[in-house]
């Protein structure tokens, strides 16, 4: 999944005016609603982009939709396995239980452009923070662990890969607790 954006306000106004004029209506002169503002671009980063980061992205996407938050969300991995790029089976099961289908997901590597365009990079562990900062030292001011950003705590989200379902349930419980707080903080003043 790439960045999902709302149309730029001037482009949106032009589209509305063109549509109204074609329909014989007068041009739109009203100010644009607040949802037309640029979204906060957040990248969730883990190791392989098949478990924690993916779950963070889709849970954040669901939370943002529920609350109508102006965000654009992606997930990436620092070291995805090109031979094992599908979502982890236990992650798929837990997400499917919530009505979220990630069967089409393919792991994506964190690219320099992702770092440049992100307003905020939220990782699962301090090792991931170090990995992002090694790739792009200029990103140090916008790269945090999810827990340190959301609650100011030195809390890691452990890798559940290859572990029983209970490990995935623990990860999703952490994400359920931290993501709403992180989204609230990231969008403060924009909603």
From TrEMBL:
Isomerase recorded as keyword: no
Reactions performed catalytically: O-phospho-L-tyrosyl-[protein] + H2O = L-tyrosyl-[protein] + phosphate
Signal peptide as annotated in the record: 1-36
Domain of life: Bacteria
Residues of the Phosphotyrosine protein phosphatase I domain: 40-185
GO molecular function: protein tyrosine phosphatase activity
Record InterPro entries: LMW_PTPase (IPR050438), Ptyr_pPase (IPR023485), Ptyr_pPase_sf (IPR036196)
Full protein name: protein-tyrosine-phosphatase
UniProt source species: Phenylobacterium kunshanense
């Amino acid at each position: 999944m790439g960045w999902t954006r709302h149309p730029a306000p001037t482009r949106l106004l032009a589209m509305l005016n063109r549509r109204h004029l074609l329909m014989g209506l007068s041009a739109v002169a009203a100010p644009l609603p607040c949802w037309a503002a640029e979204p906060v671009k957040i990248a969730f980063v883990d190791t392989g982009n098949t478990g924690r980061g993916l779950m963070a992205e889709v849970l954040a996407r669901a939370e943002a939709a529920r609350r109508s938050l102006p965000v654009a969300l992606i997930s990436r991995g620092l070291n995805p396995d090109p031979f094992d790029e599908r979502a982890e089976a236990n992650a798929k099961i837990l997400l499917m239980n919530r009505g979220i289908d990630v069967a089409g997901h393919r792991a994506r590597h964190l690219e320099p452009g992702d770092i440049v365009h992100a307003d905020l990079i939220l990782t699962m562990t301090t090792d991931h923070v170090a990995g992002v900062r090694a790739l792009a030292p200029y990103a140090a001011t916008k790269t945090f662990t999810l827990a340190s950003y959301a609650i100011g705590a030195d809390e890691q989200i452990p890798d559940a890969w290859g572990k029983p379902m209970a490990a995935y349930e623990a990860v999703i419980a952490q994400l359920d607790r931290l993501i709403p707080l992180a989204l609230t903080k990231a969008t403060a003043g924009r909603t």
